[in-house]
């Protein structure tokens, strides 16, 4: 049976939203990564800056990815395994590196 038109239209709209969210999330990741690389003078900042929960989530997500071959194409850097909540926590937990640009932890946490 063909896909109903309203379902097809809704999927196209969701596709647009996903693309915007994907771009925004990766801009934030790049911003965080560049601030930490600049401050720490290394590309390997995750071990020192991530919380224990983030490190655990990283290992779980990598394990899931290895077990499920359809989980492909992810950037291998640890920050690409973190979600928006983790990104917010990285910024607020190291606020001195972000306060000049973002001004409010409350605003970061509410996003």
Low-confidence stretches: none
Structural class, from secondary structure content? mainly alpha
Specify the helix fraction band. 55-70%
What would you call the shape? Answer: globular
* Major beta sheet summary: none
List descriptors.
111 residues; mainly alpha; 68% helix; 0% strand
Description:
The chain is mainly α. Helices cover 68% and strands 0% of the residues. Helix 1 runs parallel beside helix 4 (84-93). It is globular and about 55 Å long. The N and C termini lie far apart (40 Å). The mean pLDDT is 91.
Blueprint (SSEs and pairs):
Elements: H1 5-40, H2 46-49, H3 52-67, H4 84-93, H5 99-102, H6 105-110
Helix pairs in contact: 1-4
Give a quick precis of the structure.
With 111 residues, this protein is mainly alpha-helical. The protein is 68% helix and 0% strand. The chain has helices spanning 5-40, 46-49, 52-67, 84-93, 99-102, 105-110.
